Amino acid sequence: MSNTKKIGILTSGGDCAGLNAVIRAVVNSASRLGWEVYGIKNGTDGLTEKPLAYEILTVHNFSDTPWPRISGSYLGSLNKGVKMESLEEVSKRFGEGVKTLGLDAIVVVGGDGSMNIVSNYCKNAGVKMVGIPKTIDNDTPITEFSVGFNSACQVCTAAIDSLDATARSHSRALILEVMGRDAGHLAMHSALAGGADVCLVPEIPYKIDAIVEKLKEIKVSGRNHAVLVVSEGIKTENGEHIIGAKNLIGENVYGGVGQYLSSELNKRLPDFQTRVTTLGHLQRSGIPTAFDRMLAAIFGAKAVELLEKGETNKMVVWEDGEAKAYSLEEVVKKGTTLLDVHGDYVRAAQKIGMYVGEIKA
Ligand code: F6P
How far is the CA of 181 from the centre of ligand 1 (A)? Predict the structure, then answer.
């Protein structure tokens, strides 16, 4: 049994649909045990900056407004927005913030990067932590699904459906660039759901000539339109990433490879006009799907259950249809989960005739 009485919760990394449903689930479960919940503002900043930024959360925060149906984070989040200071320095301030608020433990809702960074702060500062995975990239280790991924897939699939309609009217090959960083889960899942003709993911090399052949084949079959899904993290044929922006600490943020592909295809196949749609941050802000709200509720309740049992320094995961917990050490050691290039998603895509790059069916 644990002595937990007062916990903090923060959201860290890029936002996604379903975060508020997670916060609600944690607040409601903890409140029923008579615990106090402190909502930490703007990721770890709320604990490391002065003055501390937080709000005491109760069930009323979530019963008066339909937060679980709203995307974004009620608490605010940070996506690599902090200047790099030494781990020791930030951990020290983090620990002081936790001590000042008198928190017994902290729930961190984040992706693989946040689990790594914040678990290090917690380890250095002797703070107990439970992690809940969220990200539209679905690349957090071990868990089969992270909160927010399913909602992002829904946004991408709806975009493919809409592009298909206009592609038909204008006899075009329309390219949809989706997020996902170095993982192709979002591209592959939504390409399958939307019935795209081509799906390029960072994990599988591709040839522009092969895409040209695929488009020619489509024309020969009597169809005058196509939809291509490309993950922002694919490289050019010369092996370069296309960079769309830099974040506040100067790291590259992908963006623009759809345009590269479009101009390459137009050069080789001028009669099949291409246009590019980059979905961007819309993928992070759709209405949370039923699956994500369900996952949020299960993860939130499970996280509080772990704290109640005194099982900390773990992350909850979804595995084989149930919520489980793995040690943060194991999660961090595994790094990022990429798309399994020999798994069912890629295999099914090939079997239904999608070009997914240079990999044997
Ligand atoms: O990790 C989530 C994600 O949306 C990635 O898919 C994308 O590459 C990145 O964040 C965009 O980051 P930013 O919020 O800095 O534009």
Answer: 7
